[in-house]
TrEMBL record:
Protein name from the UniProt record: Triosephosphate isomerase
Any GO BP: glycerol catabolic process
Source organism of this protein record: Flavisphingopyxis soli
Annotated metabolic or biological route of this protein: Carbohydrate degradation; glycolysis; D-glyceraldehyde 3-phosphate from glycerone phosphate: step 1/1; Carbohydrate metabolism; erythritol degradation; Carbohydrate biosynthesis; gluconeogenesis
NCBIfam families: tim
Record's subunit section: Homodimer.
Organism lineage string: Bacteria, Pseudomonadati, Pseudomonadota, Alphaproteobacteria, Sphingomonadales
Length: 249
């Protein structure tokens, strides 16, 4: 059995108001009773503090942070601010920011380094477009993205990698288990070439249309240590079966 605990993370993206804190509470209650799985929720920034205040024992994360420590960056939020609001982790490099906000590997790496320095654990996302996969270039592209986005140094217990093929996000078009296993093996090898044996400690999550029906098969696959879940994390009724699937492995 792997020494890596399963890790199930919900990313609410730009969804949720204080009316939805009850959903988070229901998720946190099940998470606290599931001692073999780590669970976290990443709500929009406006909900980090109210969620952390209400659910003190639960792991709450941000969805992004700025790479600078502080300064004149209107509309941005720093890692230290997230930490101050009660966050324990942050997602960096999500494709919706790489593609939608023009974030380069260098920016993603700087964000990861800032977050770790300011006390947040990091989930670093990588993934290829449909055009890249169709061209047969997915593995080269994603491993290069990882190599260029990794912090210069890091504690392997504080970093997780999320492989999210862009074409699988929010589409219902989940990657095949074979493709996920092949990509995760390549990511593990990339990590090993950088940090040696410690690569075995880093959790590799899959993201892209994970739901209660497909989670068990994905989470049982080699090197799949968890899931980064979007749409199916918005309600307890959809998210809990994914946590339960992880706990059953
Ligand atoms: O961060 C989460 C991913 O982008 C997956 O989103 P999804 O589960 O809605 O496909």
């Amino acid at each position: 059995m792997s020494e890596r605990r399963k890790y199930i993370v919900g990313n609410w993206k730009m969804n949720g108001t204080r009316d939805d804190l009850g959903e988070a509470a229901a998720i946190a209650e099940v998470a606290s009773a599931t001692d073999t799985v780590d669970v976290a929720l990443c709500p929009p920034a406006t909900l980090v503090a109210p969620m952390a205040d209400r659910l003190a024992e639960f792991s709450i994360g941000g969805q992004d942070c700025h790479h600078a420590e502080a300064g004149a960056y209107t509309g941005s939020i720093s890692a230290a601010m997230l930490r101050d609001a009660g966050a324990r982790l942050v997602i960096v490099g999500h494709s919706e920011r790489r593609e939608g906000c023009g974030e380069s590997d260098a920016i993603v790496r700087a964000k990861a380094e800032r977050a770790l320095a300011d006390g947040l654990d990091v989930i670093l996302c990588v993934g290829e477009s449909k055009a890249i996969r169709d061209a047969g270039d997915a593995e080269r592209h994603v491993t290069a993205q990882l190599a260029a986005s990794l912090p210069a140094s890091f504690d392997s217990a504080r970093l997780a990698i999320a492989y999210e093929p862009i074409w699988a996000i929010g589409t219902g078009d989940v990657a095949t288990v074979e493709d996920v296993v092949a990509m995760h093996a390549a990511l593990r090898a990339t990590l090993a070439s950088r940090i040696g044996d410690d690569a075995a400690k880093i959790r590799l999550l899959y993201g892209g249309s994970v739901n209660g029906a497909n989670a068990a098969e994905l989470l049982a696959a080699a090197n799949v240590d968890g899931a980064l879940v979007g749409g199916a994390s918005l309600t307890a009724v959809k998210f809990l079966p994914i946590i339960e699937a992880a706990a059953a492995i």
